[in-house]
Amino acid sequence: MRLEPRAHHIVWDWNGTLLHDIDAVITATNASFAEFGFPPITLERYRELYVVPVPKFYERLMGRLPTEAEWAVMDETFHRHYWAAAADAGLADGARELLRDWQADGLTQSLLSLAPHDRLVPLVRTYGIEGHFLRVDGRTGPSHSSKAGHLVRHMAALEAGGVSAGRTVLIGDAVDDAAAAAHVGARAVLYTGGSHSRSSLESAGVPVVDTLAEAVATARELAE
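Above: the chain's sequence. Below: its structure in token form.
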């Protein structure tokens, strides 16, 4: 008897991927820059320079790493303005339907974000999409961390349900997402609607798409 392969699994990124919050991010970034007299940044320049961990992004803009005191002020300012502006953000085009259809096909998915866990979970619930995910995990440590370590823990928690990294595709909007996926042995698809320019994303050496529908279609192909 031929056994069917394990169900494909998607690990979704949140900010800049499922949540279309780039306008809130730019607003908050410019508010944090203003604390130290830096001129505002455009969306185009943000996408060209953005990198994780975030202090490295500030280094690209400032010409040096921020001091611990500067980082504390910029980080607090960013999050204060971001969460105020994010209230007006919505899901990316087609996100709700893609989540529903993937689940309806008997496939599994989860959500992993570097947003604080205690802020992420209530926000996901407000959109009524929590039921589509096996797990919803946000950041529980410092705000300047990368995603790789978080993804290791996320995948370990999913293993009990039969999810393996080799059958998993991470869909995100940052080069750091691709690096995290490679770290655990998963695939990645990167979406241009968030934090990076297309040229920056292409440097990761993984598929780059302009819509979430394309991302899901590519995930299906990669998991074959």
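Strands lie at 9-12, 19-20, 90-91, 108-116, 136-139, 168-172, 187-191, 208-209.
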